[in-house]
Amino acid sequence: MKTYEGTLIASDLRFAIVLSRFNNLIGDRLLEGALDALRRHGANEDDISIAYVPGAYEIPIVAQEMAASDEYDAVICLGAVIRGATAHFDYVAGPMASSLASIALSTKVPVLFGVLTTDTIEQALERAGTKAGNKGVDVAVAAIEMGNVLRQLRDGK
Hints:
4-stranded parallel sheet, alpha/beta, Rossmann fold, single chain
């Protein structure tokens, strides 16, 4: 039986991070968590690139460019979309998530969804490093694992 399982060693992988500036109180905490996780798992500073975009709706186009560049083993997308009193949340969150999944499939590069979609800012803060952990850490670790498991599959090992 052949089994493929990604390791959590980041030393030979290259990562792109796309970060929304909107709701930067949340985004900055997610970025800190992601960078900390990548470093703790052995990623080299020179193998991490960060692209800032105005809002979550703009994440997919930059993620697409980075994934299609053949420079990265994984693209980590970070930000927060917080439901308000208008329908704006519905127009941003769903299409963005669908676009990121489509980018991963078309480029064959993992595109990790670390964009919080919450009802309140309190819920977002909980998921950005307080009560509920830090989603930036979670997606960075998943990016490491995905980068490694895809390497195994592509190398036939």
